[in-house]
Predict the 3D structure of the following.
Amino acid sequence: MRLTPVPRPPKPVSVRVATTLTWVGFGLSGLATLAAMVYLWILGIGWVPSSSDERGSWNVVFIGFEVFVLISWLPLAVGSAKNAVRAGQGSDPARGWLTVLMVCNAMAQVFMIILGLFSWGVAESWSDIPEYARELTTVLQWGVLAGQIVCVLLAIAIVVLLLVPSASRYYLPGPGRYFVPNA
């Protein structure tokens, strides 16, 4: 079977928007992760006395949450950024990986939302936390929740934009054809 060379079509709007939304999601998820880590630091280290047995065990829990938050965000963010660049250049495998990473990102954000709802109001139950720290934790909780919900919606939009037919024509030349390099 002989392959026919064809020029690559111009980059469709859906691919441009998907790669741009990936960078927006990268920044927003970074801010939400940072806010979540500050919130957990306030609860786990900043105001929880380690002398109390009950609160001492919470120190370990919140430090574990901080490590989990960072470990779950970092590979997804770096992988998404790398594959967004490559997908924007026309790499179909990068488009596939970016799609998978966005699904994983959405699932991780939903899991983090559930964890955040689990810890909602913990600061209010401890009487020795200063009032300004309670207000700060409330603001951080709402900010993190809003950021995570937006990140889930962005991930869904990116997946849809990468899988529409116009994007597929940009990445796949069709049966019996190949894209002419640099044409």
Helices lie at 13-46, 53-88, 92-118, 131-163, 165-171. The beta strands are 4-6, 177-179. The chain has a mean pLDDT of 84.
